[in-house]
């Protein structure tokens, strides 16, 4: 009897898309993301780093984790009083107003679509399997 109820209940939950609620602890595990460093203004190879990000963790946290685990990834940020932290330099290459250069934040989603988040590294919350692209560009 209890078994039947359980089966009926799980059929019900799957049918009504409630199943994920049951496996909440599964969903809240850390998930993988990649970070791609791309200098579009120089002939330079791209760098890619993989890490696990805490469930709903911010990009800045993942970047700090990568920085502490890899000698070939270093970055600096500055705090904007209104918009929070923004990326200033990556591996010693800094954006420069006179030269109209900056580090652009792009994200390649798991399905291949590339988006430009309207928030900075301190606010962006990566999705599982995002490839976050830090692209040195001109404006
Ligand atoms: C670096 O990555 C960018 C963005 O994915 C890509 O367009 C570019 O071709 C790559 N450059 C190299 C040298 O692989
Ligand atoms: C990829 O996913 C995003 C967000 O869910 C969606 O907006 C976009 O249209 C999708 N792209 C493709 C090619 O399916």
From TrEMBL:
Assigned keywords, A-Z: Signal
GO molecular function, one term: cobalamin binding
GO BP annotation list: cobalamin transport
Leader peptide range in chain numbering: 1-24
InterPro entries: Cobalamin_Transport, Transcobalamin-like_C
UniProt domain Transcobalamin-like C-terminal: residue ranges: 69-138
GO cellular component: extracellular space
Protein name: Transcobalamin-like C-terminal domain-containing protein
Lineage: Eukaryota, Metazoa, Chordata, Craniata, Vertebrata
């Amino acid at each position: 009897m209890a078994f039947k109820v359980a089966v009926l209940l799980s059929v019900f939950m799957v049918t009504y898309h409630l199943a994920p609620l049951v496996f909440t602890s599964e969903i809240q595990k850390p998930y993988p993301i990649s970070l791609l460093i791309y200098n579009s203004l120089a002939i330079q190879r791209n760098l890619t780093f993989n890490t696990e990000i805490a469930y709903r963790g911010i990009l800045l946290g993942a970047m700090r984790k990568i920085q502490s685990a890899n000698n070939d990834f270093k970055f600096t940020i500055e705090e904007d009083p209104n918009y929070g932290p923004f990326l200033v330099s990556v591996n010693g290459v800094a954006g420069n107003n006179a030269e109209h250069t900056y580090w652009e934040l792009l994200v390649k989603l798991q399905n291949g679509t590339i988006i430009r988040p309207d928030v900075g590294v301190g606010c962006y919350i990566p999705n599982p399997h995002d490839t976050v692209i830090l692209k040195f560009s001109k404006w």
